[in-house]
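EI: anyone free to look at a 150-residue chain?
SC: sure, send it
EI:
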Amino acid sequence: MNREEGVTRLNGMLGAMGRELELPDLKLDEEGNCPLSFGETFMLRCSLDSTGEHATLYACVGSLPAEDEAFGERLLVANYFWKETAGSRVGLDPEAGSSVTLTQSMPMEFLDDELFYKHVERFVNAMDYWEKRLTALEETKDREAFLKLP
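SC: here you go
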């Protein structure tokens, strides 16, 4: 699949999802990105790589607490076999410093409207999980509770 084919296919999937969710005009911009907003709570971006072979979902889900080795270990445990990420990956955005991110890459060759919708739905559920966990950590400062496995 080339870039042009990937853009056409992903725009079709975005359009189908937009019609289902009553979010008109969902499509990639000229840079290959589409911001998605579900209410005021969930903000994410869908993008297509330069080859047109992979779509990616990306969201910032919170901020890194003060430098803490145990926190980094906790994120790695969450990523282990996607245990707490619903197939996505938790990471740190090196350009944003303390932003905790959630990303998911999807091979375009296997996607259709229904599967794309399911990936987005799972991703939003994972966003909700991590945003709640990080917000609770920030509000309560209960580092020990955060570090425990769910």
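EI: The first strand starts at residue 33 and ends at 38.
SC: 👍
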